[in-house]
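Open question from group meeting: does this chain pack into something compact, or does most of it stay loose? Before anyone orders reagents, we agreed to write out a predicted structure and look at it together. Recording both the input and the output here so the notebook holds the full record.
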Amino acid sequence: MAGTSAETALLVFAKAPVAGAVKTRLIPLLGAGGAAALHGRLIVRALATAHAAAPDKLALWCAPDATHPWLRSAAARYRADLCAQHGTDLGARMAHAFATTLRQTKYTICIGADCPALTPQHLHDAAAALRTGNDAVFVPAEDGGYALIGLARHVPQLFADMAWGESTVMAQTRARLHAAGLCWQELATLWDVDRAEDYLRLQQSGLMNDLPSPV
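Structure tokens returned:
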């Protein structure tokens, strides 16, 4: 990534696009197959965005495991390492990914596949925030979570016993950062695609046309 010397890793966290197992809140609108297809396009968008930022290391951290053919193809398309998520909940899986990656790189930035408004510039800005001395950086999401988290050091308390999926995640995260005496930066708030109204917003935004074709 520009401005670094083999120091920055970008992680994309995603589940395999299996019909009925992903984007379940969009199934009434799109059907199980349509929701899975959208999820696949969002994963490819996230990988393309991460790849365009030219990180020193790019990895697709996937679930349920690293053997799914679609995930293997997606990772190969963007020359990303394919890593299996491990842990009983999202927090444990993210903690494991950060702990593993921060042993190899100085800065680690993680994104999901739900935020098509995220751009390579957001990733460059996040890396810059870490390089200038912040312990952490975030792109908050309008639903109360976050679309990006970057760390210059492993902070396990950011992931344990968190109310994942609730509107309090970013607020809880801020409280824990403050309690730990850490310094962090927040970039502009973006929005996720989780619900029917988000899908309509995606269509109206023009970003739908920018979603890459499935692998």
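Observations to bring back to the group:
The mean pLDDT is 94.
The first helix runs from residue 27 to 52.
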